[in-house]
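TICKET #2291
ISSUE: user wants both folds in one file
ATTACHMENT 1:
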Amino acid sequence: MGSILIKDTTREERIRILNRSLSQCGGGCENCSSCWLGGGSIDGIYQDYIDGKREIADINRDYSRRHAGLQKG
């Protein structure tokens, strides 16, 4: 697999990358309303990556920080 960075991919490739990566959760994306962490729609979580605005690593880091903060309280 090549680079998943925005600068190295097209919008269509980013969609394929997400679908391929997220289908490994075991549940499949068909009729799915949230990611395996219960974070909401995949398009909603990763729309900035699809649109070429933010890298996956940045989105995942921010999501993890928010999720960890909810667990503490």
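ATTACHMENT 2:
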Amino acid sequence: MAMTISDRAARARAAVDVVTAFFAQIQAAAGDPDALDFTFGNPHELALPGLTSAMQAQIEPRSVEWYAYKTSERLAQETVAVGLRTDLGLDFEPEDIAMTQGAFGALSLAFALLADAGDEVVIPVPGWFCYEPMLYAADLVPMRAALDPETFDLDLDAIENAITPRTRIVVVNSPANPTGRVYSEATWRSLADLLESASRRYGRRIWLVSDEPYRRIRFDGIDFVSPAAVYPWTVIDYSYGKVLLAPGQRLGYLALSPLIPNAERDELREALFPIGLAIGWGFPDAVMQYSVPALESVSLDLDELARKRDRLFGALDAAGVRLTRPEGTFYLWGEAPGGDAAAFCAALAERGVHVMPGTLFAQPHHFRMSLTATMDMIDRALPHLTDVAASLGATAR
């Protein structure tokens, strides 16, 4: 007898089973007041004052339509366009912006806007663990392209090998989750050449979706260049939940590169509202949209985040754990001592320290830690981290 759920739902569920199982495990440990949770990028302190004050200022209605259905509010679009011009040096216009329910909503909009059922979408590995289930749920086909195993740079050969006549989209992520890498303009130019050549070869435009929710979270003054400045056929998704450290307040956008040729850009602009409606009224709530002008300048403390990075990285590196020094995001990515991420994470969990195994990223030999933990949590966890690393074979430097 056939399954009750659809085939695409079954594929999506299977693709995300390892994540949902891990989430359930972490939820079970949430009642332990002594647990040290370095898994998901959740806050461990009260919300940023700038976030709460921005929302509080918009709660009281100013008109009878204050809480009516919202699409993309014009003031929010204008604010985002100005911010993008400042961040990326490109001439974005308000009409290029669709406000969404976080980056999740922006990605869903991009996939619905650009791809047809059965189209293939190239995704990075290791990469965000929700790309695959989202694509399956949209009746699209994920195609993995491994990053360079040593540097976690984009591997252009791997991307080219993943492209077929059915490829419609390539997804890139910089600063990258989970590795923290920030890719250079030279990398984007090489990728643009590759995608232009492949598009001509197959007679079908390949789009680039630039996943940029961590764009404003970078360390050491490192520059950021978006591929939207290099490859015209690019759309950008963004989430405010990262820089505000408030993933439960869903606010983001999809932005069309201003370099998209005018005819195609106009067609996409006209489709943003009807497709946003069609995928389930994917626009942010009223208060969040009204808050955008105030929220553009609100950010978690990047200097404190850098201190947390340096504290964890320095101690674990000295203990012999091989790590990738993050250039952005709020994650630390490393090789599991002993080579078995599940064993490393299980041994830590027995001591009340919870880190994310690389199995969630199709990398069974690695682990990820969230830097959104407090410094006190880091100091309490480090003896356990170094002890377990030593017991599994790490050698102090």
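RESOLUTION: both attachments delivered.
EXTRA DETAIL ON ATTACHMENT 2: The two ends are 59 Å apart (CA to CA).
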